[in-house]
Amino acid sequence: MSNSGADWNFFSNYAHVLVCLAENPDARLRDVAQIVGITERTAMRLVTQLEEGGILMRIKEGRRNSYTIDTRKNLRHPIESHCTVGELLGTILSEEAFKKLEQRSNSAQLAE
Question: What does the DSSP 8-state code read for residue 74?
Answer without folding.
Answer: B
